[in-house]
Design brief:
With about 325 residues, the chain is mainly alpha-helical. About 75% of the residues lie in helices and about 0% in strands. It starts with 11 loop residues before the first helix and ends in a 14-residue tail after the last helix.
């Protein structure tokens, strides 16, 4: 992880310039790499069943994170209670959240999936309000309603479709929205749970636990017999491990330590745009007027909800990468 230890004889102006450079660099890494994971997942599920893809990438990522913690002297020892907490969070984030997202990309465009997942901050705000945590205020409720209106706009072509394909895509899209709800629930749990290890080690354990669950699901479904261990599959896994999990999360952790959390939360606005753009460039995914309208409305809604939580003095939860990773 990059640190800001000031070199000898460095002037305050030079230190400020260095911090600005590192801030811009880490924002760029989070924006680009987390936005690009949707494309990598789509390539991966063309060769590997979704549960197997997630069952391979997350244990590798988690083991590397935990090894890094050990090498840098950070504790990774868990109590039984902490292990159960991190298992729950990991399953919510990376099994019923990420693995279901990967499953959906067998049927719908990666850009559409990314735009649906963009409602995660809205789900988080709604859950917090229901459980009596960080409550929405003022324009936050407007943003919440606007977010669901944006989701409605995204799904309008499938809602009005009378074809079997249209109905299938509608069902898949609604399942993605529920996967986003699972990710939001995991984020809220992560925010409220206390464990005796640091954020990086906790995320490593979450990935390892969820990866084991995903492998068990893959084995139960006979996914190993249907896997195509091609070069493209391994490239997708490698990209997701290195850039989605390790580089992306390291940059995210640095930002949480050096930048106000609401600014860090802007990745929720940018990642869907990056995902749509990459899907259009590399896969020729079509962006119709409903998707464009839905994307604009959802991004505006997330901005309203996030700014509302900021004005109430409760920053968004800081968890591992929200969305595709």
């Amino acid at each position: 992880m990059v640190t800001l230890a000031q070199p000898p004889n460095q002037t305050p102006h030079a230190a400020l310039q260095r911090k600005r450079l590192l801030t811009s660099l880490n924002f760029g890494l989070v924006y680009v790499f987390w936005g690009s994971t949707y494309l990598a997942i789509l390539i991966g599920v063309r060769h590997l069943p979704p549960a197997l893809l997630c069952g391979v990438r997350f244990p590798i990522s988690g083991a590397i994170m935990l090894a890094w913690c050990v090498m840098t002297g950070k504790t990774i020892r868990l109590s039984g209670r902490d292990a159960l907490k991190l298992l729950l969070v990991g399953v919510l984030l990376m099994t019923t959240g990420n693995a279901v997202l990967a499953w959906s990309e067998q049927f719908i465009h990666s850009g559409l999936a990314a735009m649906i997942v963009a409602i995660v901050p809205i789900w988080v705000a709604l859950i917090e309000t229901v459980i009596g945590g960080d409550r929405l205020r003022g324009l936050g409720w407007t943003g919440l309603l606007l977010g669901f209106a944006g989701l409605f706009a995204l799904l309008w072509p499938d809602l009005t479709s009378e074809t079997t394909l249209g109905r299938r895509d509608l069902v898949v899209s609604l399942i993605v929205a529920l996967a986003a709800l699972s990710w939001a629930a995991g984020s809220v749990c992560s925010h409220h749970f206390h464990v005796d290890v640091g954020l990086f080690a906790a995320t490593g354990w979450e990935m390892l636990f969820a990866g084991i669950v995903n492998i068990l699901i893959a084995a139960a479904h006979g996914d190993f017999q249907r896997a195509d261990w091609s070069r493209s599959a391994w490239l997708a896994i490698g990209y997701l491990v290195v850039f989605g999990s390790l580089v992306g999360f390291t940059a995210y952790s640095w930002l949480l330590d050096h930048v106000p959390t609401p600014k860090v939360a802007t990745y929720a606005y940018v990642n869907p745009v990056v995902a749509v753009f990459l899907g259009w460039i590399f896969l020729g995914e079509h962006l119709d007027r409903y998707m464009f309208l839905g994307m604009i409305v959802i991004i505006a809604a997330v901005a309203l909800v996030t700014s509302s939580k900021l004005s109430s003095g409760s920053p968004p939860a800081a968890t591992c990468d929200t969305g595709a990773d």
